[in-house]
Automatic annotation (TrEMBL), chain A:
Signal peptide: none
Family recorded in the similarity comment: Belongs to the binding-protein-dependent transport system permease family. CysTW subfamily.
Bilayer disposition of the protein: Multi-pass membrane protein
Name of this chain's protein: Spermidine/putrescine transport system permease protein
PROSITE patterns (UniProt xref): ABC_TM1 (PS50928)
PANTHER family: PUTRESCINE TRANSPORT SYSTEM PERMEASE PROTEIN POTI (PTHR43848:SF2)
Organism: Terribacillus aidingensis
TrEMBL record, chain B:
Keywords: Cell membrane, Membrane, Transmembrane, Transmembrane helix, Transport
Record protein name field: Spermidine/putrescine transport system permease protein
Record SUPFAM superfamilies: MetI-like
GO biological process annotation, one example: transmembrane transport
Family named by the database record: Belongs to the binding-protein-dependent transport system permease family. CysTW subfamily.
From TrEMBL, chain C:
Leader peptide range in chain numbering: none
InterPro entries according to UniProt: SBP, Sperm_putr-bd
Keywords: Periplasm, Signal, Transport
Keyword Transport among UniProt keywords: yes
Single GO biological process annotation from the record: polyamine transport
Cellular component GO terms held in the UniProt record: periplasmic space
Name this protein carries in UniProt: Spermidine/putrescine transport system substrate-binding protein
Species of provenance: Terribacillus aidingensis
Location relative to the cell: Periplasm
SUPFAM superfamilies in the record: Periplasmic binding protein-like II
A Pfam family that the UniProt record links to this protein: SBP_bac_8
Gene3D superfamilies the record matches: Periplasmic binding protein-like II (3.40.190.10)
Length: 268, 269, 355
């Protein structure tokens, strides 16, 4: 960590990170429990991991989950950014607030309702349940979160910046790609990561709109609850967690090295 | 490119989304909310909502959502602020989000273990001489875990608005002899209000309809509108009443949005 | 901007590679073939080896999908969109599915192994003549308790739970009919009693139990009871055997006043595509040796009388999970009460939680 913050602040940050990671380390710890349960550690074993690598069905489920999360986050980010731009264009306060409220409806609605109504809509539309219905739903419920993440960035952009760019002869497209997008990039990344979170966490909506053998990890985990979730899932989460960490760090290193200016940030 | 209709083309995907995934489901929910148990048109569901049991639930939903948002903000703001001062701030920020990618149910099970009678939290309490306490199934653990879940959602927008804050403003304020608190109150906070508001919306709105944690962590001792909807859909299979509660949730959300919307206007003068 | 575009391209490429891998894996498992059977069941509610041997023997590939509540499953079947060939709902749900005309009748001539089922579990009120359903597992609702933590105290009846020394010790299953039913049973009324006065009486009695209630939980109750977080739980027998296998201090008791008898049965939803394979599957599951193997894995009680001889004796002789016919006489199967009365029970339950 850095020297620019006081020791007290540093302790605060350390505690925050410790708390955020506490349950995850708890899960990881018990994935090595030979007792087979998430309490009463008996002795160290790697059996769970061995079992895991023989389980093709679970592997397919994990890959499904990752594809859905990445694709839905990507697409919802694009649509969400466009939506935020549109909302930002609305001048009247009342219209703007109404539009934003419409945007937020999917955030406030409980998952069962979203899931059930999407299911009804898809069956009316004659869409076959499976990969595409799940992807569409995940895109749909991630869009509002992206809008909420991007909108503050857009609205704090000063109009004089845009005017200046236009005065310099920039076309609409250039203003967009050279001025607006770079400015709101942190918001875009925030939206993307939040969409990823929503998608990975979702159980109820996916449950309703999935079918024909297509399953994601949350659906599988929730339906295991009746018979007790096995530590295989802990082991699986451990592996996913480690892979994620490695990807995050590598990504950071790569983007940081390709930048020339030392103070440039990944997100910009 | 320059004529008006092509200029609005970019709106199409978002408008389609609103039409199919917001308006259409809302109409469905409205339609169901006017149906009684036998599928006839009726207002009984709405009458039912205005009975003490649902009103009490509404109050408690708001109270907990408020509490959760407040606590989340209190911890998220300083965290976001300190993060912006770190060297590899973007990496640290990413590391704040990563825990939220692990399945929620699993993390909830972990919390059950941590807060349990023989769990880590109680061992800690004993070690510092406070003696073991009943932590599970209390308001404390419920709010704690809810805050745990929402905090990355709050930190992100606040971080983004703090990060662009021009350091020269702060220096200027310092040079002019402003105390740190004054600087914060007069300069930093007003400039980050948009981020704070986004964070509060992303926390408060879903917190209104929390349901899983009310059972897992609060042991069904906390009942919110989300819990009630869940039960109407998945236990009684009374979609009518479930939809009616959802209609009210949406109305409440509109009210909250308009209330905060007006404030923004005033703050900007 | 350039960086964003590049990132998007990378994500798309990764997804492409993953999708390709998935399709290869699916093909290697035979999931994309024609001769498939889609089974819709609770998670981990079947021995995977049994599925494997079924696939080997018949050449049919099983696609196993899971659900977590009966009601959610019903919604999926009702809406269509997926062709489930076999589903495993609980008995009250079978009645509902029948009412909604969502099931196909079963051709008994294709299931000769039906003769292995104990007659006690055939031809029950929720499905006369087993026209639409074949028993899979069954069980009861009872009390699981940790006598060691309770200093050797014995619990025999629902009424014992009202003991004032049990403050904050009980975990309930978060399920309206089980809990309101317990109130009714403890007063000597039937589980299916819908007399408003009796319901109110049961509610009042339950409210007086509230100080003893620690929490109302779902499936996580197993972990908490086994780890000693609470010493008493009102649970389904399937959960009880699960909990007891983890912690030997616990015992399961069927309350004297009576309790609920439940079934999970196999049915063929109307949307089924491979009805023939569904019959084959049912028949296979009723084979004594297969049923015995499956029961040992799942550890719920099997209705298959012939299977008992292939199972460990201590399992079969356990009166707590294989109660005698006299004991089962005190047990009642839930009747479908209709939406209004169910709604009333649900409302009372919500009120009870909010007390």
């Amino acid at each position: 960590m850095d020297k620019r913050i006081s020791p007290l602040s540093r302790i605060f940050l350390i505690v925050m990170f410790a708390l955020l990671y506490l349950p995850i380390f708890y899960l990881i710890f018990y994935s090595f429990n030979s007792g087979g349960k998430m309490y009463g550690f008996e002795s160290f074993t790697l059996d769970r991991y061995r079992e895991l690598f023989q389980n093709t069905r679970l592997l397919i489920i994990v890959l499904n989950t990752v594809v859905i999360a990445l694709l839905s986050a990507l697409i919802s980010t694009i649509i969400g950014v466009l939506g935020a731009m549109m909302i930002n264009k609305v001048r009247s306060r009342r219209a703007r607030d109404s539009l934003l409220s419409l945007n937020n409806i999917l955030i406030v609605s409980p998952d069962v309702i979203i899931g059930a109504s999407f299911l009804i809509l898809f069956t009316i539309a004659g869409l076959k349940l499976g990969f595409y219905s799940v992807l569409l739903s995940h895109i749909a419920f991630s869009i509002p979160i992206v809008v909420l993440m991007v909108l503050p960035k857009i609205s704090e952009m000063s109009p004089s910046l845009l005017d200046a760019a236009r005065d310099l002869g920039a076309s609409r497209w250039e203003v967009m790609t050279k001025v607006v997008i770079p400015y709101i990039t942190p918001g875009i990344f925030a939206g993307f990561f939040m969409a990823l979170t929503y998608s990975l966490d979702d159980f109820a909506v996916t449950f309703f709109v999935t079918g024909n053998g297509f399953t994601t990890l949350s659906v599988e985990i929730y339906s295991l609850a009746r018979r007790g979730i096995s530590l295989d899932i802990n082991a699986l989460s451990t592996i996913i967690f480690l892979i994620t960490m490695v990807i995050v760090v590598i990504y950071y290193l790569i983007t940081n090295r390709t930048k020339k200016a030392p103070d440039m940030e990944v997100f910009k | 490119m320059e004529n008006k209709s092509t200029r609005s083309l970019y709106m199409i995907p978002y408008v389609i989304w609103i039409a199919f995934f917001v308006i259409a489901p809302i109409l469905l929910v409205l339609y169901y909310s006017f149906q009684d148990l036998n599928g006839n048109f009726s207002l009984t569901n709405y009458q039912n909502f205005f009975t003490p049991i649902y009103l009490e639930m509404t109050l408690s939903s708001f109270w907990y959502a408020f509490l959760i948002t407040l606590v989340t903000l209190l911890f998220a703001y300083p965290t976001a602020y300190l993060l912006t001062k770190l060297k590899h701030k973007q990496l640290w920020l990413l590391l704040i989000i990563v825990p939220s990618w692990i399945n929620l149910l699993l993390k909830a099970y972990a919390f059950l273990g941590i807060f349990g009678t023989y769990g880590m939290a109680n061992k800690l309490l004993e070690a510092i001489g406070m003696g073991s306490k009943q932590l599970l199934f209390t308001d404390f653990s419920f709010v704690f875990v809810a805050v745990y879940i929402f905090i990355p959602f709050m930190i992100l927008p606040i971080f983004n608005s703090l990060d662009k804050l021009n350091a020269t403003y702060l220096d200027a304020a310092n040079d002019l002899g402003a105390s740190r608190w004054t600087t914060f109150r007069r300069i930093v906070f007003p400039l980050t209000i948009d981020g704070v508001k986004a964070g509060c919306q992303i926390t408060f709105i879903p917190a209104l309809s929390l349901f899983m944690l009310t059972r897992l962590i609060a042991g069904s001792q906390v009942i919110t509108l989300g819990t009630a909807i869940e039960q109407q859909f998945l236990v009684t299979q009374d979609w009518g009443m479930g939809s009616t509660i959802a209609v009210f949730l949406i109305i409440f959300m509109f009210i909250v949005m308009f209330a905060t919307g007006t404030k923004r206007r005033r703050a900007r003068g | 901007m350039k960086q964003l575009v590049r990132l998007a391209v990378v994500i798309l490429a990764v997804c492409g590679i993953l999708l390709f891998t998935i399709s290869r894996l699916n093909a290697s498992q035979g999931y994309s073939g024609n001769n498939t059977l889609t089974v819709y069941n609770w998670g981990d509610y079947i021995d995977p080896e049994v599925l494997d041997s079924f696939e080997e023997e018949t050449g049919i590939t099983v696609i196993y999908e899971t659900f977590d509540t009966n009601e959610a499953m019903m919604t999926k079947i009702q809406q269509g969109g997926t062709s489930y060939d076999i589903a495993v709902p609980s008995e009250y749900m079978i009645e509902k599915l029948k009412e909604e005309d969502l099931l196909l009748p079963i051709d008994h001539s294709k299931i000769p192994n039906l003769k292995n089922i104990d007659e006690r579990f055939l031809d029950l009120s929720f499905d006369p003549d087993n026209k639409y359903s074949i028993p899979y597992f069954w069980g009861t609702v009872g009390i699981v308790y940790n006598s060691k933590q309770l200093n050797g105290m014995k619990i025999n009846s629902w009424d014992d739970l009202w003991n004032p020394t049990l403050k904050n010790e009980i975990i309930f299953t978060d399920s309206p009919r089980e809990i309101i039913g317990m109130g009714l049973n403890s007063l000597g009324y039937s589980l299916n009693d819908t007399d408003p006065h009796h319901l109110q009486e049961a509610y009042d009695k339950l409210v007086s139990l509230k100080p003893n209630v620690k929490a109302l939980l779902g499936d996580e109750n197993k972990m908490l009871l086994a780890s000693g977080e609470a010493s008493i739980g009102v649970v389904w027998s399937g959960d009880a055997s699960e909990i007891m296998s983890e912690n030997e201090d616990l015992d399961y008791v069927l309350p004297e006043e009576g309790s609920n008898l439940w079934f999970d049965n196999m049915v063929i939803p109307k949307t089924a595509k491979n009805v023939d394979a569904a019959h084959k599957f049912m028949n296979y599951m009723l084979d004594p040796k297969v049923a015995a193997k499956n029961t040992e894995y799942v550890s719920y009680s099997t209705p298959n009388e012939e299977a008992l001889q292939y199972m460990p004796e201590e399992m079969v002789n356990d009166k707590r999970f294989y109660p005698s016919p006299e004991q089962t006489e005190r047990l009642e199967v839930y009747e479908n009460l209709g939406p209004e009365k169910l709604g009333r029970i649900n409302e009372l339950f919500l009120q009870f939680k909010m007390e």
